[in-house]
Amino acid sequence: MAHQNTPTSGSHSGYFDEHRSADVVNDRMAGAGNERLRDVMGALVRHLHAFVKEVEPTHEEWLAGIDFLTRTGHMCSEWRQEFILLSDVLGVTMLVDAINHRRPSGATPNTILGPFYIPGAPEYPNGATINLDGKGEPAVIRGRVTDVDGNPVSGAVLEVWQTSNDGFYDVQQPDLQPPHNHRGIFRTDANGHYWFRTVKPRFYPIPDDGPVGQLLGAIGRHPNRAAHLHVIVTAPGFEQVITHIFTPDCPYLNEDTVFGVKQDLVATFRSVEDQDLAAELGMQAPFLLVDWDFSLAALQGEAA
Length: 304
Ligand SMILES: [Fe+2]
Fold this sequence. Notes:
With 304 residues, the chain is of the alpha+beta class. The protein has 2 domains: 14-75, no CATH class; 88-296, Protocatechuate 3,4-Dioxygenase, subunit A, CATH 2.60.130. It is built from 7 helices and 11 strands. The protein is elongated. The two termini are 38 Å apart.
């Protein structure tokens, strides 16, 4: 398809007509120096023209679309990226992620990074808590990091972050939450084990006070993300995993507004009454226990 857009031949004029509209536009890109850019723009023009031919917008509808994109741009700032939000709610972000992270069977899948990751969270020893405000249902997350054959990966770095029990990240409430609340870094031990204490995450809405939120309302969708805990797992020689652990009983599990839920990422939050196990883990019964392993795919060309 790369050479479909050859320069205008003698049989075609460069004049616009409805039937050949995409070809007329793409014929002008023969001089593009970057072949990939020419291919991408050629596909964009073909799909965009096909979309317009299917929808047949009125002039007013076309202007409404231009106005929506204009407002989306105006909403963007150093702290707010409304176009990424638009990509998220249309499923495009997850599709790009899926295309770029096809993994072998058994490897922990990726999901969306989201806007609330911050590098440089405090590093804690295994067993520490990231619940600095004391609110919420206490939970222990523990497990192993292994390669896809089950061999332990020691020294793997786990960066974790989640909302408070009120459904907000620390950076959304700098005056209400302690710095780095529900955020921390842990490392696996020699046997690939990790564990930390936190609280059960809860669902929260994406920022919906802009044009993307208005669009969601207009098409009958809510802005809520299914409750989750974010984890990035990094280890030398392995593909980095940017993923979530989802709670199984969230009312939005099947309708996450950014389509981030995958079946393999839904955990069991087991209620523990056992006083001995509670004491061993520094908890008070009852508490929630999540046994959760991560399986890393080796980087291509590198032995695990
Ligand atoms: Fe999140």
